[in-house]
Amino acid sequence: MNPFEVPDRIDVSTHLDLVKAVFMASFAMWIPLPQVLEQCLVQLYTERGWDFTTGRHRGGRPDVPTLGDLTRRRGADRADTRLQG
């Protein structure tokens, strides 16, 4: 079971809000961590063909990120931020 999998008839934005709420309830998250988490999740789902305008996958079998994908994305974003700042 993958908690990042979007259930049938659920909009991807709604699902991401719920995933973010679980993270916020489970871990102490101070500003800007919730926004960083949301940005990473949106990027992961967008890269995998999810459309936040329609709330659905753009076709084919939906590719769903994993917790490992999220940690790799956050590590890459952190490296990019250090290079820019």
* Order of adjacent strands in the largest pleated sheet: 1-2
Q: Kindly name the structural category.
A: mainly alpha
Helix content: 55-70%
By DSSP, the count of extended strands is 2
| Measured distance between first and last alpha carbons | 38 Å
The largest pleated sheet is described as:
2 strands, antiparallel
Low-confidence stretches: 81-85
Shape: globular
Explain what you see.
- The chain has 85 residues and is mostly helical.
- It has one domain.
- Helices cover 56% and strands 5% of the residues.
- It has three helices and two strands, in the order H-H-E-E-H.
- Strands 1-2 form a two-stranded antiparallel ribbon.
- Helix 2 crosses helix 3.
- The C terminus is likely disordered.
Keywords:
3 helices; mainly alpha; 2 strands; two-stranded antiparallel ribbon; 85 residues
Give the gist of this structure.
With 85 residues, this protein is mainly α.
Give the arrangement of secondary structure elements:
Elements: H1 12-26, H2 33-47, E1 50-51, E2 56-57, H3 67-84
Antiparallel strand pairs: 1-2
